[in-house]
Amino acid sequence: MPRYKLTIEYDGSGFVGWQRQNNGPSVQAVVEHGLAHLYREDITVFAAGRTDAGVHATGQVIHFDAPGTLPADKVRDALNYHMKPQPVAVLAAELVDDEFHARFSAIGRSYLFRISNRKAPPTMDQRRVWWVAQKLDAEAMHAGAQFLIGHHDFTTFRATECQAKSPMKTLDRLDVVRVGEEIHIITAARSFLHHQVRNMVGTLKLVGMGSWKPEDVKRALEAKSRAAGGATCPPIGLYLTGVRY
Amino acid sequence: MPRYKLTIEYDGSGFVGWQRQNNGPSVQAVVEHGLAHLYREDITVFAAGRTDAGVHATGQVIHFDAPGTLPADKVRDALNYHMKPQPVAVLAAELVDDEFHARFSAIGRSYLFRISNRKAPPTMDQRRVWWVAQKLDAEAMHAGAQFLIGHHDFTTFRATECQAKSPMKTLDRLDVVRVGEEIHIITAARSFLHHQVRNMVGTLKLVGMGSWKPEDVKRALEAKSRAAGGATCPPIGLYLTGVRY
Known about the structure:
The structure is a homodimer of 245-residue chains.
Chain A: E1 3-10, H1 27-39, E2 46-47, E3 56-65, H2 72-83, E4 88-96, E5 108-116, E6 130-131, H3 138-145, E7 150-153, E8 168-179, E9 182-189, H4 196-208, H5 215-223, E10 238-244
Parallel strand pairs in A: 3-10, 5-6
Antiparallel strand pairs in A: 1-3, 1-4, 2-3, 5-9, 5-10, 7-8, 8-9
């Protein structure tokens, strides 16, 4: 059976998350529903990152085994057709060998978090940015962020319900830049703990507001306690932007 | 009575247009409803451009006369509060003298039209871009657009229901640029005929697809007949970006 790797994009606003669940529409269900229409049989898909409710993706990667061989571009276009009008789209499709696994073969994941940082509330991007009206100091946030780069115990930034065996992770990148009226937080690692990005962003916001000094991020990390970090920020500004293999 | 000038932004997706109408929610009604809450009396607002259903704004300008004097920033913040959760926001507010009229004092209007030009359908921006899957040649579109610059009879690009006395207009700018996977059409004039921007965009798309040569735009203009132009493109990619006084 040919295995396909798909790069997909979605607006997570209206979904309970990537994963199929009983309590509402999931991105996985949209994709599997589209594939069922395309191939006339049930197909299970596997994703690199199981994004939470409200989280978006511009570079999620998934794979599935198809019952027949179609050119990859044809799979992309046909699946896009069958997923209409859901806000989920296949950006690229390719045939891969059956060693490839979207989740287990991944060696890097990158995320963007968008904060709308202006007096006026968002309009176009109401469910696609986190709105913080108070002016944030992006440079101070960036300085604080650098204390988190490297191999650390990220217990402070880990959801209490996180199921990872170890809180040890290696953070490769955590950049904070101002882009017009937005603050963008760009991060990359082999993998992240549950809510790690949102807990880091919630903590950096304290630095941006001036409530914390950049060095306080180091102290929070070293405390190895969730209580020492800032509040988990909302999911709506988070985008899974890419997966490396 | 103090007169306020407001710069406002809105996502036009869910509205019947700027103007108050009986057939659905309008942006004007949202703003006037917010002002009624703020001042506890009915207030009429006047806009620089009466955008059509589905058309967005990042720089619409409106004015109104207030029954009392509040600092301009306070008006901005309070009105934003009262318009929640509608996708309409006040970006800036200022006190102006009572000679100022949002519509009649305007000496220039600028618009952006966004085309999503990629194989995959839009997700995040489903109702904020016009999707054209076939690759468009932005340079050819730009070359064709330049024939429209200047003072001309724009009958070819004028809606049949347009109520302007004359089809003569002076077009100051019509640039077409590729921005990643999007084509942006940026235009400016003292004023536009009804559907002029959408009719120009629909015509330039024919050039982008290669169905027309850039010079065919000149021929269409000179025909002075709506039938000689391309089809009116959808409103969803259109943004009123600014008004000059």
